[in-house]
């Protein structure tokens, strides 16, 4: 599949219309303002299982052990050079939807037969870029909520993505209340424009 200078936004909140959804849309607004196409998907709209460790993917190019909603997500991820990941903080980490999604990307690694096994990623060296947003209600817990950012950042850096920007949001309790924080909304839009500019430079 040909990689394109487009952006895929992935939300992992189980709550429709909440702060995660609002911020994802704002980032993608910033992307589109630079003339870069962007699409949004919500993991809650897909039915998929966590990785079962069957290792069948090592004999194919994608997950072949499970036939579920991830088969619809893989093509969208592979063709987009830019990526936006948004997760609320659940128990000091990403949501179960995001964790299962990340684990199902194991199929993008190829491993050698020696021990310890060496690996390569089929997404590496393609100029892929990402921005990340983590959201937590409690103010004063930035370090703990930051684990949510790392839980997304580290796996995707291993896959071959370069971090362009990240946003850590705390102290916003009510559903959709982030809309009233003009400074935060502008930051979200700004990292979207930064992402668009970063992938546009890959022509």
């Amino acid at each position: 599949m040909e990689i394109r200078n487009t952006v895929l936004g992935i939300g992992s909140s189980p709550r429709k219309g909440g702060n995660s959804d609002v911020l994802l849309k704002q980032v993608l607004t910033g992307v589109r303002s630079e003339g870069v196409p962007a699409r949004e998907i919500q993991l809650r709209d897909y039915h998929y299982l966590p990785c079962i460790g069957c290792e069948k993917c090592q004999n194919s190019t994608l997950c072949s052990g499970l036939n579920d909603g991830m088969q619809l997500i893989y093509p969208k991820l592979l063709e987009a050079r830019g990526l936006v990941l948004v997760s609320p903080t659940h128990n000091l980490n990403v949501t179960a939807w995001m964790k299962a999604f990340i684990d199902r990307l194991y199929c993008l690694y190829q491993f050698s037969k020696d021990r310890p096994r060496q690996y390569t990623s089929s997404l590496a060296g393609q100029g892929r870029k990402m921005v990340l947003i983590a959201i937590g209600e409690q103010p004063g817990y930035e370090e703990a909520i930051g684990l949510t950012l790392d839980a997304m950042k580290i796996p995707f850096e291993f896959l071959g993505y370069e971090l362009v920007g990240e946003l850590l949001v705390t102290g916003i309790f009510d559903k959709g209340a982030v809309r009233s924080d003009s400074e935060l909304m502008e930051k979200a839009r700004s990292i979207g424009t930064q992402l668009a500019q970063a992938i546009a430079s890959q022509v």
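The chain has one domain: 4-200. Helices lie at 19-32, 70-79, 96-103, 142-159, 182-200.
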